[in-house]
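Can't paste images in this forum, so I'm doing it all in text. The chain is below; anyone willing to post the predicted structure tokens underneath?
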Amino acid sequence: MRIHKADFSRGKVSSLILKVSIPLIAAELVNLLYSMVDRIYIGHMPGEGAAALTGIGLCFPVISLISAFAKLFGANGGAPLSAIAQGRGDDDEAQLVMGNSFSMAVISGFILMVLTFIFTKPILYAFGASDATYPYAGSYLRIYSLGTIPVLITLTLTAFINSQGFASVGMITVIIGAVLNIIMDPILIFKAGLGVRGAAIATVFSQTVSCIFAIAFLLGKNAAIRLSLSSMKLSWRRCRSIIGLGMSGFTMGATNSAVQLVCNKCAFIWGGDLYVGVMTILNSVREIFSTVVNGIGSASSPVMSFNYGACNGRRVMKASNFMLLFIFIYTFIVWLVVIIFPHPMAMLFTQDEVMIEASVHALRIYFFAFVFMSLQTSGQQTFVALGRAKQAVFFSLFRKVIIVVPLTIMLPYAFGIDGVMLAEPISNVVGGSAAYLAMRHTVFPELRTMEENR
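Text version of the structure:
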């Protein structure tokens, strides 16, 4: 029997968001296990764990960049446009948007795979690798690059599965690969003696299996909007719309890659390989706690997009407000946890006492203003869900490029290595406040007018 597509115009808005967010958060957590399990196992490799963990951390900017392309075509680009089309009742357009997004993901994945594989060494040395850490980073990234196409397809199509209201299927898509990765990691890393190469092989194989599952579901009869060969024919108009809207998410992902690059470089200059490893731990802990933030934001997006397409401004505002309140409470709790329990968080990734002590101090600085991510996410996600590409792109650039990068370079001259960590909380306060206030000033008046004219 064909499953009916979700109708986000009915029911309590907060309940809809929470219902959709639970499998999304679970999927985020499980998806995080891909790289997180790699880091945990690699960080505890006898004798070489600290150096190997640092090497894997150098690959983060490249992995972030690859994920940014998935946001460009999926979660922040094609998926919201497809949801808006569904809200208008135009399923044909929703299908064409998904097909075009799929084609662009495949083409981009192939180009990124070739470039990353060929230029692995110069890329990693530019990102802060040393002769001690490159052997680990290079071994991991060369193999990981071979799985770029299935990674991009999985992340892109999962966003469309979620936007159709099948968040549980999206969760299963991720769980299948993550479980395989968890099983294969210790076998290939320790039993087969492949080390970081084993971790990369397990990740690529697992992502490929998830990719096959996602494609099979969207080709099958149970999908509300199905993937078809005819919909994959590229249309310049649709591609431009997808890229235009998705540029905000891409910019955030790409600039996150740039920030990681700058942080690794500055950490190496001011603290050596030790602090490149510390940055790996900071990013890992941030990713863990950001899963709920991302899940609530992703769950709110289709609810807002659908109701915006249906000209229901009141429900869009309710969704945006609920997103802000939930994330604010959550990030405040996270801040308290990090302040009180930084030591066990660092120990999760390394046994090296020097790296643990350095990480404990860095965690308290880095997470100081984490609560302001509620403003950044709420403002950014509302812009994206309503198709406000220019505003979303600007505030992505503002926080990361205009604030974080210059501060990461300049603050160490005044505060030493602590300055590298201080840039993040400052950007959260300034960038988050600016994004949210601008959204409230420009978007909410339009939504109120929309509601009055219904």
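The chain has a mean pLDDT of 84. The longest helix spans residues 273-309.
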